[in-house]
Amino acid sequence: MRKVKPVAADRLPELLRRMPKAELHIHIEGSLEPELIFALAPRNGVKIPYASVEDLRRAYAFTNLQSFLDIYYAGASVLLKEQDFYDMARAYLLKAAQDNVVHAELFFDPQTHTARGVSMETVIHGLHRACADAQAELGISASLILCFLRHLSEEDAFETLEQALPYRDKFIGVGLDSSEVGNPPEKFARVFARCRELGLHRVAHAGEEGPPAYVWTALDLLKVERIDHGVQSGRDAALMQRLAADRIPLTVCPLSNLKLCVFPDLASHNLRQLLDAGLVATVNSDDPAYFGGYMNENFTQTFAATGLSSQHAYTLARNSFAASFIDAATRQRLIGRLDETFDTFQ
Ligand SMILES: [Zn+2]
Asked: What percent of the chain is predicted at pLDDT more than 70?
């Protein structure tokens, strides 16, 4: 990793905001802000059990992953038409561009929508059109990763994959999300094997609340290329060595971990431990509408709480490009922009 010059603590937030970066762990349904939920609900004639934007925002006091998921699925119920999915992704991509995110890989949960009678075509077309427009209008490249809900069956995941295959050119890979504990990666070994045969990229949430054993099985049985979260890996020395040796990226989400009580406070977060062990860790926002911050908030708050340096900033941004599913030429170009930002920063 290239050595960068030290930057004073009071100038570090500006550098963190300005540096180009990729976001690799963003659930697009988790970017749905209360304001947009309240705009879409009357447009679609959907009743939501909250009186106002403030009332809904007050409900965002979570105690664990499940307490968040209950509200998350209620919020998604306002999404019915292609334009709704477009508007949601557009709103996220605008915010991402403001944070100098130059590439984003967006998770989406089709089962949350198909179970309510919304077609796969509606979901994928709306999201994909927003991604295509962002390239032309905002200068940010964006692609889609289809996530299977792990609290549902593998059979349901297979059915979802079948429904999505006619739109194979509009998503680059598959992931695994929702309630982790009790739904280990091995439950989805066959459907991930099929996705591998199809040439799809593979990622999975593992080691967020679940044990290091889930990270092992995500690697060995699902053959994933990245681990989403993975912070519990810090409890297993052999696993840490494996992740470093194989350069398996972790898409870490500090504010999410804080909100869902994975760590008691940001100062206790183990991001530094992961970086110091040579892991390809990255910073991401997960479900920013619910967890109190988009990319730059995740960076600035975590750096302020843990005392990370400009060298860590460079490493995290570079890791985000190394871990992304972009082609080699694009990766080199984006790293060049990153280097230039650090070279010219005063
Ligand atoms: Zn996530």
From this structure: 100
pLDDT band at 162 (very low <50, low <70, confident <90, very high): very high
Domains of the chain: which residue ranges? 12-344
**Which two structure tokens, joined as six digits, stand for 284?**
């991401």
Buried b (16+ CB within 10 A) or exposed e, 168-181: eebbbbbbbbbbbe
In the numeric block, the tokens 């993975």 are attached to 230
Tell me how far the alpha carbon of residue 27 lies from the centroid of ligand 1, in angstroms: 6
Query: What's the CA-to-centroid distance between 192 and ligand 1, angstroms?
Result: 18
Please write down the HEC assignment for all residues of 190-232.
Answer: HHHHHHHHCCCEEEEEECCCCCHHHHHHHHHCCCCCEEEECHH
Mean of all residue pLDDT scores within the chain: 96
289 alpha carbon – ligand 1 mean position (Å): 13
Q: Which residues are annotated as a binding site for Zn(2+)?
A: 25, 27, 205, 286
Contact assessment for residue 158 and residue 191, using Cβ atoms and an 8 Å cutoff = yes
The per-residue pLDDT for range 41-77, each reduced to its tens digit, is 999 999 988 899 998 888 888 888 888 888 888 889 9
CATH number for the domain whose boundaries are 12-344: 3.20.20.140
The phi, psi pair for 5, rounded to 5°, reads -75, 150
From the candidates 29, 105, 208, 209, give the one annotated as an active-site residue.
208
**Residue 208 falls in the annotated catalytic set:** yes
Q: Give me the mean pLDDT over the 76-88 stretch.
A: 96
